[in-house]
């Protein structure tokens, strides 16, 4: 249940970001759901490998290079999902930062509700 909630929240965040971030567009809520699903899969499969391969630069930048990796995954996702468009790498960086903040807040509240039960 919590996984579905995270999926829908990320899809809604992607839709809101289309209104806020110039250079980032998603056509419909269906496309946002697919984009959130694919981003979740990419974050689970590709991101750990990319972080290990870029570990030295990630250490030097105190972890900030992770946002570049996430932006690259967002840009990569937009290349093969119809209805999602990222025209600028800086837009992808901004989307990555906001999605990180949304995930952090979501995880906090979902963990907090788990402890209160």
Describe this entry's structure for a reader.
The protein is mostly helical and 117 residues long. It has one domain. 80% of the residues lie in helices and 5% in strands. It is built from five helices and two strands. It has a two-stranded antiparallel ribbon. The longest helix is centred in the C-terminal third of the chain and has 28 residues. The chain is globular and about 40 Å long. The relative contact order is 0.17. The model has no long low-confidence stretch (mean pLDDT 93).
Low-confidence stretches: none
Give Rg in angstroms. Answer: 14 Å
Number of domains: 1
Query: Could you state the order of secondary-structure elements as H and E?
Result: HEHHHEH
Mean pLDDT: 93
For the biggest β-sheet, the strand order reads: 1-2
Structural class designation:
mainly alpha
Largest sheet: 2 strands, antiparallel
Strand content: 5-15%
End-to-end distance = 15 Å
**What best-fitting shape do the alpha-carbon axes yield?**
globular
Number of helices: 5
The helical percent reads over 70%
Number of strands: 2
